[in-house]
């Protein structure tokens, strides 16, 4: 993650107490994480770091929107994002690499001097994306999807339904079905 240097928080030189960081997650951020179906976004990431003697507590607030492709009409739309998470990083003696103790508690070797939080910001964003991505509805309850595409899909659906009803059966399959029904 060489391009996301701003997400690498150097905590060793910081005094005990609270520290504020403002970052952004845009096109370059999502380019690094191609697995997520987001190519564009405009997110503000605010980190409040509470540095304690043996622990780092990150209060992560992410606000803005990302561009997604609607599952219904296949057009791009903006999905609002509003995330509030807390991540605990314990500085641990005797370990060699980062260990995930639980969902929001990490163990970091006490020999480390910085912490890359970009992956966790990515996880928070990806978990905030709905499973079903659609434009939604306006206040009148009407879909905000591209109506032309919805009409085309409905037409294809009706056409397929009509073809299924009018379709003649293959006599070879009918013969096989008779054999199956005899047993």
Topology:
Elements: E1 8-10, E2 17-25, H1 27-32, E3 41-51, E4 55-69, E5 76-92, E6 99-102, E7 105-109, E8 114-116, H2 118-128, H3 147-166, H4 171-182
Parallel strand pairs: 5-7
Antiparallel strand pairs: 1-8, 2-3, 3-4, 4-5, 6-7
Radius of gyration: 26 Å
**Count of structural domains:** 2
Structural class: alpha+beta
- The helix content, as a percent range, equals 25-40%
SSE series: EEHEEEEEEHHH
Identify the overall geometry. Answer: elongated
CA(first)-CA(last) distance? 63 Å
Q: Strand order within the widest sheet?
A: 2-3-4-5-7-6
User: How many H/I helices?
Assistant: 4
Q: Largest sheet, described in full?
A: 6 strands, mixed
Portion in strands: 35-45%
Rounded average pLDDT: 87
Low-confidence stretches: none
Which keywords apply here?
alpha+beta; 183 residues; 6-stranded mixed β-sheet; 4 helices; 2 domains; 8 strands
Question: Care to describe what's here?
Answer:
- It is a single chain.
- The protein folds into two domains: 5-128, no CATH class; 147-182.
- The chain is built from four helices and eight strands; from the N terminus they run ββαββββββααα.
- It has helices at 27-32, 118-128, 147-166, 171-182, and strands at 8-10, 17-25, 41-51, 55-69, 76-92, 99-102, 105-109, 114-116.
- A hairpin with a 2-residue loop joins strand 6 (99-102) and strand 7.
- The protein is elongated.
Please outline what is shown here.
This protein is of the alpha+beta class and 183 residues long.
